[in-house]
Design a protein that fits this description.
The protein has 264 residues and is of the alpha+beta class. It has helices spanning 2-55, 138-142, 146-149, 257-261; strands spanning 61-71, 74-86, 90-97, 105-109, 112-116, 124-126, 131-133, 136-137, 150-160, 163-172, 181-187, 193-199, 205-217, 220-230, 237-247. Strand 4 and strand 5 (112-116) form a beta hairpin. It starts with a helix and ends with a helix.
């Protein structure tokens, strides 16, 4: 009995010691396993948010946009717009050319979109995914809140032309968003967007967008040229040129249906 008692007293501390070592090894691993996905998601969200701020000001602003569309067998078509934006949820897009459509206005409130046509009393409800002109959807011009419309996931990093880029997958938060899925390349040091691939609800690549010609606009270097290339039709593309961007104190009434009804 004495020998048994001694054996027990000799092994118990050793068992406790090994248990302590195992706990010391396992607990940090479990904490990291739980914390890593959350921290990755937060990093991805922050990257997309900073890229949004590179593309457009946080403050209220207006900007001129010229969209040129060309196909392999068609002459180039050009349209011009004036965009007024306040925050991420309010945008008015006014057509200035062609003359036959001058004065038409797209109003975005949150994710709701209406078209106002001069001398027509009732606005027309539209979707963000509907085509505005060429390869450009309504949402491409009227809504640029990628960080609010998509759930971001960091896929990998890549080196392109000497630059280190984040590659992210953006998944739409609901079916009202312009695109079902976006693969997005963003510069690691400057958070400047480099490229985006847009996918349909059936997960078909429909077009690619290249962000080019970075220049200072409204106090920050931003992309002034977006090239949208049709992934399904060869040699078809739409080019968006941004110019004359300026910060403006825009009144809330500008973004109301009752106010826009009076415009002609």
């Amino acid at each position: 009995m004495v020998l048994i008692g001694r054996a027990k007293s000799r092994w118990r501390p050793e068992c406790i010691g090994w248990a302590g070592v195992l706990l010391a090894l396992l607990v940090p691993a479990l904490v990291l396993a739980e914390a890593s996905p959350a921290s990755d998601d937060e990093l991805a969200r922050t990257i997309v948010e900073k890229a949004d701020h590179v593309r457009f000001p946080v403050e209220s602003f207006e900007v001129a946009v010229t969209i040129s569309t060309r196909g392999s067998d068609e002459p180039t078509e050009e349209r011009k717009y004036r965009v007024f934006a306040k925050g991420q949820e309010n945008t008015a897009v006014m057509t200035t050319e062609p003359a036959s459509e001058r004065g038409q206005i797209l109003l975005m409130k949150g994710r709701d979109l209406w078209l106002f046509v001069p001398k027509v009393s009732q606005p027309v409800r539209l979707s963000l995914a509907q085509r505005l002109t060429g390869l450009v959807a309504n949402g491409d011009l009227a809504r640029a809140n990628l960080s609010g419309d998509y759930t971001a996931k960091l896929l990998r990093t890549e080196k392109i032309e000497g630059d280190s880029l984040y590659v992210l997958e953006l998944t739409a938060v609901d079916r009202s968003i312009t695109y079902h899925r976006v693969v997005y390349w963003v510069n690691q040091s400057s958070y400047r967007p480099y490229k985006a691939e847009f996918y349909s609800l059936s997960d078909l690549l429909v077009k690619t967008c290249l962000f080019q010609n970075y220049k200072s606009m409204a106090g920050i270097v931003r992309p002034t040229r977006l090239v949208m290339q049709n992934a399904l039709v060869e040699n078809e593309e739409s080019v968006l040129e941004y110019s004359d961007m300026r910060l403006r104190d825009l009144p809330d009434r500008l973004f109301t249906k009752d106010y826009l009804k009076r415009l002609e």
